[in-house]
Amino acid sequence: MGLFDKLKNAFGSKEAKSTELPEPKKTPSMPKAKKPKEEEVKLSPKEEATLAGEPYINILSMDVDPNDINAGAFELDWNDKFILNLVKAGYKYKEADTDIDLVNRWFSQVCRNVALEVYEQEQADPEHRDLRKMTTKDIGNGRSEVS
Fold first, then answer.
1. Contacts of 103 (CB under 8 A, 6+ apart)
2. How many CA atoms lie within 13 A of 91 on its CB side?
3. Percent of the chain with pLDDT over 90
4. 20, 45, 77, 119: which sits with the fewest CB atoms below 10 Å from its CB?
5. Phi and psi for 23 in degrees, rounded to 5?
């Protein structure tokens, strides 16, 4: 046996050996996910308003400074339609105004309106009206002291 025959035997013959691969094992199929029923899909009020093309604004939270009861902050949430309505209503003063600028202007105006309404109602009610008694004292030379 020659060298060539020895190499041929060492590496196998040229005759075709079965090169078929074993059948792959089938993996079990995944269970199908249940499609959510329409009633299971719950949209937030903001999403509902947005889909309906309606403006949306909501107060998410309110914080009051424990050291100063008159100081606080509100966290607001809104959609694009609400901002568009503010722009149409004239709350956008300059091109650089952000959505937050517009909402702050609007919210400040709402707070002013509430304060003015409360004041006007108190002034219209004689029991709550500021009915301070004024006294006038003549101090001479055509002058008066009012207290």
1. 57, 76, 78, 82, 83, 86
2. 21
3. 50
4. 20
5. -60, 130
Express each pLDDT in 31-62 by its tens digit: 777 666 656 789 999 999 999 999 999 999 99
What digits encode the pLDDT tens for the residues 104-125?
999 999 999 999 998 888 888 7
Which SS3 state, helix, strand or coil, does residue 41 take?
coil
- Measured CA to CA, the distance from residue 139 to residue 3 in angstroms comes to 141
Report yes or no: 130 and 119 within 8 Å, Cβ to Cβ: no
pTM above 0.70, yes or no: no
The residue written with tokens 């308003």 in the block is 49
User: SS in 3 state form for 59-121?
Assistant: EEEEEEECCEEEEEEEEEEECHHHHHHHHHCCCCCCCCCCHHHHHHHHHHHHHHHHHHHHHHH
